[in-house]
Design brief:
CATH class of the largest domain: Alpha Beta
Mean pLDDT: 87
Structural class: alpha/beta
CATH topology of the largest domain: Rossmann fold
Low-confidence stretches: 14-23, 25-36
Number of helices: 10
Distance between the termini: 36 Å
Strand content: 15-25%
Bound molecules: S-adenosylmethionine
Radius of gyration: 20 Å
Length: 312
């Protein structure tokens, strides 16, 4: 069987409402039905992350609230692919979990979390307010070598604001025109950013950050009954151009997830191969609609042991 990133080779047939999937070697077609529940309204979701994050899950916050409200309050929510961390932030701020653990492999992204959580949040918030963002100051920050974790964090925040789409993968250029022709300044909201960082720093005793491999952290915590997991790995198709690290063994991820004692919610792009892996692991799947940054409608896949809490 040909495999890339642990994904089996597959063939599709059928209509958009009823898609049949043949996975090489499985000997049968599997039925994947696309449900059509309404798109979640994100207007009620406070934006708490200091990042603008490609693949960010703000739109999923109401669904995660439903999930966490349906189980007994966990001591810790572990987010093994944290990125912009909106689910961890919202869950702690909404007091649905006691604490959250963000795990992120990209050292630049992790440096921002570590700076905010481990005592330098207020300094970062003040420096953001003081920073005069111009083409020259951006050039200086992005081309100077960050010698400390703090400098790395500051430079990452600036890069995330001025790069096209907020993308932090290598090789992505600066945005050109930006919003309303405001260029580099169009995504620089120093007060908003500073307030978000200060708010997280105030609750820093309820967060921890691990700069490491999410799969290892899942494995290390697998026996815990007081932890739950929100798992949002780099997607099978888009991940490569969005993140520094995007290669995941998806099959291994499903093996580890199935072994977790605590409850979990996995999200993926609506890929038939992923749906197949989920079913093979004995997990439930549900497609839910969302709008991406270009406002086009897209289906995403929710995966868990019991998705009875998902409202249509
Ligand atoms: C889909 S994004 C997560 C987005 C996040 N849920 C949000 O709302 O912003 C996936 C993240 O996983 C990170 N990542 C990739 N491989 C990883 C690994 N093995 N361990 C931990 N993080 C990883 C990427 O750098 C990226 O930030």
């Amino acid at each position: 069987m040909s495999k890339e990133n642990g994904l089996p080779a597959a063939r599709l047939r059928g209509s958009p409402q009823c898609i049949m999937l043949y996975v090489q070697g499985s000997g049968e077609y599997d039925e994947l039905i696309s449900a059509e529940p309404p798109i979640v309204n994100v207007a009620s979701v406070p934006q708490r992350s200091p990042f603008r994050y490609a693949g960010g899950k703000t739109w999923l916050v109401p669904r995660v609230r439903e999930w966490l409200s349906s189980i007994s309050r966990p001591a810790e929510l572990i987010e093994p692919f944290a990125g912009g961390g909106i689910i961890s932030l919202s869950s702690v701020f909404d007091d649905l979990v006691e604490s959250a653990c963000l795990v992120e492999l990209d050292p630049d992204v992790a440096s921002v979390w570590s700076t905010i959580i481990n005592g330098n949040g207020n300094r970062l918030a003040e420096d953001i307010l003081r920073f005069d963002l111009t083409a020259e100051s951006v050039d200086r920050i992005l081309n100077s070598c960050a010698n400390t974790e703090y400098e790395r964090a500051f430079s990452t925040i600036v890069r995330n604001r001025v790069n096209r789409g907020g993308i932090l993968a290598p090789g992505v250029g600066l945005m050109k025109k930006g919003e309303n022709g405001k260029g580099l300044l169009s995504r620089w909201y120093p007060e908003t950013l500073s307030n978000r960082i200060t708010a997280i720093a105030k609750k820093s005793d309820r967060f921890r950050i691990i700069n490491g491999d999410g799969l290892e952290v899942l494995r290390d915590n697998a026996k815990r009954t007081d932890a739950v997991y929100f798992i949002d790995p780099p997607y099978t198709v888009a991940g490569r151009r969005l993140y520094l690290h995007s290669a995941i063994d998806h099959s291994r991820l499903f093996d580890i997830a199935s072994s977790l004692a605590g409850d979990f919610l996995i999200t993926y792009d609506d890929s038939p191969q992923i749906a197949y892996l989920a079913r093979k692991a004995g997990l439930q799947t549900k497609t839910v609609p969302m709008k991406n940054t270009h406002h086009s409608r897209k289906l995403e896949l929710l995966i868990g042991r019991n998705l009875g809490w998902v409202r249509d």
